[in-house]
């Protein structure tokens, strides 16, 4: 299935004298990549500061069938509807989105999504993560967008207000190329590597993300008085930056933690973070389905 058949809007050096000191910091290709990334970051941020208000916003729900942790996750039933449909219906309620599409490499997902009325863009199987899939989908669209919102398909209870919040945060932060949301971390999720933690600075910019508990104190235990933060599966990007992202080489922290947002930070870009009240979380394992369905029954959500 080609992109045009699935959605009406788709179309086709210097070296220092002290080499001993510098050699252990960065060597060869790593140094070149870091310098290039730094130059790219400066160019993009400079352009953003002088650019017009980023008003045109598209929401993209990346979805793939293959998953090492949960095969076929987008199509798992949540109280009778495929999970990706639940996410799409919630995202449709956001007021800041000018358009919403699903990006997938799987015909089964595409067929289901078209059945409930979603626009679908077929993307390649080679996409390494949701960010790359969003970037590829963006290339097929005729209309130009300023902001791309990556809406994870495994967040069936995501509030549309959170989508609007991350969009507005990026619009209000011309020095940032990325925005995302966090909420309070439940103590029982502190040691769960599927619950990604975040720390940010006093101005609301991300410092680091980890699958481990951060910050980590000397006692090695959870501090019940500390406001730990849980990263939610939604993020928005400046469209200019999204074109650059796939060209940035993988970074050590990104590879070690298996978290794509670390490549953004490690390459010197700024990421705005908003804190929201959100007591549900995404579906990472089959066991999470029952938790989501129980929450929906409690809230009388059909």
Automatic annotation (TrEMBL):
It comes from the Eukaryota. GO terms for molecular function: 3-deoxy-manno-octulosonate cytidylyltransferase activity. It catalyses: 3-deoxy-alpha-D-manno-oct-2-ulosonate + CTP = CMP-3-deoxy-beta-D-manno-octulosonate + diphosphate. GO terms for biological process: carbohydrate derivative biosynthetic process; small molecule metabolic process. Its EC number is 2.7.7.38. PANTHER family: 3-DEOXY-MANNO-OCTULOSONATE CYTIDYLYLTRANSFERASE (PTHR42866), 3-DEOXY-MANNO-OCTULOSONATE CYTIDYLYLTRANSFERASE, MITOCHONDRIAL-LIKE (PTHR42866:SF8). This is 3-deoxy-manno-octulosonate cytidylyltransferase.
